[in-house]
Amino acid sequence: MPRAAPEALRGTIYVLTIVAAVAVLIATLILPVLQIEGTSMEPTLVNGDIVLLTKATAFGRGDICGFAWNNKILIKRVIGIPGDWIEIDTDGTVYLNGERLDEPYAEQIAFGECDLEFPFQVPQEQYFVLGDMRESSIDSRNTLVGCVEADQIIGRIFFRIWPLKKIQFF
User: Fold this and answer.
1) pLDDT of residue 58
2) DSSP string covering 70-111, please?
3) Active site residue 76
4) Does 112 or 121 have the greater pLDDT score?
5) If residue 113 lies in a helix (H) or strand (E), which one and from where to where?
6) How far apart are CA 145 and CA 165, in angstroms?
7) N or C end of the chain: smaller count of CB under 10 Å?
8) Out of 72, 76, 136, 166, which one is annotated catalytic?
């Protein structure tokens, strides 16, 4: 009888190891998990929120995506897709292909740190991204970040898992 306990323990350890390995693979390859740091996406996403990304190859206007930049992962909203024309007035109003962009997610618009000349055309295989908190966001308006190349994008945010009272799909 004493031998059954070590075998059961060994079996449990094997199962837990396999489950942990599968969870790590899913979290890195299929559904990366990120914690929001900073205020550039407020009020949509706030500091401390935890979100799931889904891997994607194409992104549409309005999608919130995570992308690699300068050894960090930044979270921004896709405003322009390849070929789009972007203009931003000095008051922060965004125009997409000549039409004013309706942005209910941006509580406060601002010109922010912008060193682009407008009108600006989004290059092929790249996306023009902006933070929802325009005053404090460093994004495609600044050549420091610029447009995001498609292969820099890790995925699209599709679900907030924390805090529990704010769980939602995007």
Assistant:
1) 83
2) TTEEEEEEEEE-TT-EEEE-TT--EEETTEEPP-TT-SS---
3) yes
4) 121
5) none
6) 33
7) N
8) 76
Residues 6+ apart with CB under 8 A from 102: none
* 133 closest CA partner among 155, 161, 163, 106: 106
Place of tokens 């909203």: 77
CA terminus-to-terminus distance, the chain: 54
- Whether 40 is catalytic: yes
Note the pLDDT tens digit of each residue in 65-75: 999 888 888 99
Its pTM surpasses 0.90: no
pLDDT value at residue 136: 87
The rounded radius of gyration (Å) of the Cα atoms in the chain is: 21
Q: State how far Cα 20 lies from the chain centre.
A: 25
- Which residue among the candidates 40, 55, 140, 166 is catalytic per the annotation? 40
List, in order, residues 6 or more apart from 62 with CB less than 8 Å away: 77, 78
